[in-house]
């Protein structure tokens, strides 16, 4: 089965060759047709501290802004307006790295600072057609949330993006983690004493927007981020995706495929889901389950080996 899947991917995926956010976007051009006229494109990463996945997300944002008319970034975590980041990209007031230094740890990265500086430069060059940060009006609990709180967080996240879509009348790139962006109706998140299962933001947004919500999953096979992450065990989708003879690739999961491949894409699976509390000795416990690749994602971007994102200086 895996040979049939990898052979099909090798013939239908688009090889990605660049990780430099400023490099030409030639290798990503096929993504434009895949996105089509969507109003919200979600970039869901299986880990937030990878240089490659962060850089690719930046490149995709560039592509969608420069060629597809997207003008808002919903950057999952804190409210960029409260932090002063939206003011910074609009007026240059403040210092991007200083503003990010008080944000969540997965924002305190040079890759995120590079993104903010690019947004500032875009605003400077196009003041009448600038990209903005979406406002985040949610209030995240200070203490560790319980299952009911987590379900409410997902609904609130979807509500906030829906509100900003109406408020700003702009198309939105939602940059976050796959636990939130995948179409999970429901999906389960591990590790936990019992896997935490509930409907997530991606499922609410797909229900509300239909094909105007496009879910892009960014996955990987192994690497450092900054802790060592071994290859995934068999039974993980990432195990098969990593056998493809490309270091990085882009794949539209909605295209026609042979029955054996379709069966694999629609079969329940697990995929990596790694946060800051990762335990390399128990790496197989860190995953998302409760659905299939075709349930979760419209488009897949896979990188075989990742390296650490750079903390802010």
From TrEMBL:
PANTHER family: ESTERASE, PUTATIVE (AFU_ORTHOLOGUE AFUA_1G05850)-RELATED (PTHR31299). It comes from the Bacteria. SUPFAM superfamilies: EreA/ChaN-like. Gene3D superfamilies: EreA-like (biosynthetic domain), EreA-like, domain 2. InterPro entries: Emycin_Estase, Hydrolase/PRTase-associated. It holds the Pfam family Erythro_esteras. This is Erythromycin esterase. GO terms for biological process: response to antibiotic. CDD domains: Ere-like.
């Amino acid at each position: 089965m895996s040979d049939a899947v990898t052979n099909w991917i090798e013939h239908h995926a688009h090889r990605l060759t660049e990780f430099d956010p400023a490099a030409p976007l030639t290798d990503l051009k096929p993504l434009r047709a895949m996105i089509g006229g969507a109003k919200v494109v979600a970039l869901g990463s299986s880990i937030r501290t990878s240089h490659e996945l962060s850089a690719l997300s930046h490149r995709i944002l560039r592509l969608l802004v420069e060629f597809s008319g997207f003008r808002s970034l919903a950057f999952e975590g804190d409210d960029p307006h409260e932090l002063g980041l939206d003011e910074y990209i609009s007026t240059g007031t403040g210092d991007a790295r200083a503003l990010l230094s008080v944000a969540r740890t997965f924002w305190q990265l040079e890759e995120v600072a590079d993104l903010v500086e690019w947004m500032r430069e875009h605003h400077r060059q196009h003041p009448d057609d600038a990209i903005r940060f979406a406002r985040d009006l949610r209030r995240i609990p200070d203490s560790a949330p319980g299952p009911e709180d987590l379900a409410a967080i997902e609904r609130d996240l979807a509500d906030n993006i829906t509100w900003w879509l109406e408020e700003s009348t702009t198309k939105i790139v939602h940059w976050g983690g796959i636990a939130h962006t995948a179409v999970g109706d429901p999906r389960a998140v591990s590790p936990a004493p019992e896997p935490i299962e509930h409907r997530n933001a991606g499922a609410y947004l797909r229900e509300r927007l239909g094909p105007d919500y496009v879910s892009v999953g960014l996955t990987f096979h192994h690497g450092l981020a900054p802790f060592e992450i071994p290859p995934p065990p068999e039974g993980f989708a990432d195990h098969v995706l990593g056998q493809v003879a490309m270091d990085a690739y882009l794949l539209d999961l909605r295209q026609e495929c042979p029955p054996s491949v379709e069966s694999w894409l629609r079969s329940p699976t697990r995929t990596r889901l790694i946060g800051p509390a990762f335990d390399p000795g128990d790496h197989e416990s860190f995953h998302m389950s409760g659905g299939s690749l075709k349930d979760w994602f419209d488009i897949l971007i896979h990188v075989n080996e990742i390296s650490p994102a750079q903390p802010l200086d």
